[in-house]
From TrEMBL:
Gene3D superfamilies named in the record: Ribonuclease H-like superfamily/Ribonuclease H
MF term (GO), any: nucleic acid binding
All residue ranges annotated as the RNase H type-1 domain in the record: 32-152
Lineage start: Eukaryota, Viridiplantae, Streptophyta, Embryophyta, Tracheophyta
Name of protein: RNase H type-1 domain-containing protein
Natural source organism: Gossypium trilobum
Pfam families: RVT_3
Length: 184
């Protein structure tokens, strides 16, 4: 299989001493997302993990996309998938969290985006139009590791997932780590 890249080189190992995932407060649902990109095959994958204010996983899913031109596009597509899931479920209090600062900034800026991913950003903004309790926030890799693990494995294995109330077996240890070692 070709080289798998993201916007930055990332490590799947647990993240001792770094910023960690934190559960949402006040009845919000947090949707973490990540994109992975295989430049040799022009393929990407989107990974999404949804958790409630108790830290419980509500669902995890991944999708594989063909004919994708960049890691930047892969991250935008992953964000769009996260928004589709959150708004599609009818949830009203949503935090979308990803490790691509550029994507988060584009989602938070008013007005059109004229970059190469502008159509994805436009789709995202259309889906959230009129919803008031939605936030996009950046998380470092160490706080987004669960989404990273499932998306990277999806691209390696070539298998998409959709699981209610859990994550694939290969990511269960990270899911437990996130809740057990959550900062105060």
């Amino acid at each position: 299989m070709g080289e798998i890249t993201s916007l930055e080189r990332r490590d799947q190992n647990f993240t001792g001493g770094k910023i960690r995932w934190k559960r949402p407060q006040g009845g919000f649902i947090k949707i973490n997302f990540d994109g992975a990109f295989d430049k040799n095959q022009n393929r990407s994958a989107s990974g999404v993990v949804v958790r409630d204010s108790e830290g419980q996983i509500l669902l995890s899913c991944t999708e594989i996309h063909e004919n994708i031109s960049s890691a930047f596009a892969a991250e935008a597509i992953a964000c769009r998938k996260a928004v589709q899931i959150g708004t599609g479920k009818g949830w009203q209090f949503l935090i979308f969290e990803g490790d691509s600062l550029a994507i988060i900034k584009k989602c938070n800026i008013k007005g059109p985006d004229r970059s190469m991913i502008g159509t994805y950003i436009h789709d995202i903004k259309q889906q959230i139009y009129g919803l008031e309790k939605i936030r996009f926030q950046h998380a470092p890799r160490s706080a987004n590791n669960l989404a990273h693990i499932i998306v990277t494995e999806t691209l390696k294995r070539g298998e998409e997932i959709y699981l209610d109330m859990g994550v694939p077996e290969y990511a269960e240890e990270q899911a437990r780590y996130d809740v057990r070692n959550e900062p105060d």
